[in-house]
Amino acid sequence: MSHICIGPKGSGKTHLLNSLRESDSINDTSHSVSTVGTNIFTIKNPNVKESDTNKQKSRQMASVQIREIGGTMAPIWRRYFEGATHIIYVIDTSNLCQISAAGVLLYTILTEPRLQTADILLVLTKMDLAYRQMRNEALLMIQLAKLKKELRQKITVVETSAVTNTGLSSVMDWLFPPPLKKTTQAKTPESH
């Protein structure tokens, strides 16, 4: 499985991934420099204890590696799509000027032939800076309801704030879904 995190420049990808890696690493004074190139983040599964990692009974992944690709590299994002199974697409909801451009970039990702079976996580970041109406406007501007009807990919939408840790548990649930439980079929008595 290959996980990629992309989004426009300044959308909050690095803050999000740092928060997922270490939940108390981001606060009101945190600042990051826009990623030029790529970063690799290893995110550990909070549901798997270190003692469980050696046991074969554990069916959940202990960690995932996520490649963050800088927003300035949007023209060459597609070079990284080969084998990608999970795409995290980040949009800054506090920047309405950027949302329409983010929508155009999202369309190019969703129409990419190599990503037709990829799971897509649409992360609306900086919810601590945005008000509710901005979130609704963002979803309207990217026409998410229409997209969901027309696309093959499964799109999950999560609202987050790296500063307040809002929504991070939902992102973790998407990254580390619980293992499927085996269902046992009830035996029906045979009629004689």
Please describe the topology of this protein.
Blueprint: E1 3-6, H1 13-21, E2 38-44, E3 63-69, E4 86-92, H2 96-110, E5 119-125, H3 132-141, H4 144-150, E6 155-159, H5 168-175
Parallel strand pairs: 1-3, 1-4, 4-5, 5-6
Antiparallel strand pairs: 2-3
Helix pairs in contact: 2-3
What does this structure look like?
With 192 residues, the protein is an alpha/beta fold. The chain contains 5 helices and 6 strands, in the order βαβββαβααβα. A 6-stranded mixed β-sheet has the order 2-3-1-4-5-6, with helices on both faces. Strand 4 (86-92), helix 2 (96-110) and strand 5 form a beta-alpha-beta unit. Helix 2 (96-110) crosses helix 3. The model has no long low-confidence stretch (mean pLDDT 82).
Give the structure's gist in a few sentences.
The chain is 26% helix and 19% strand.
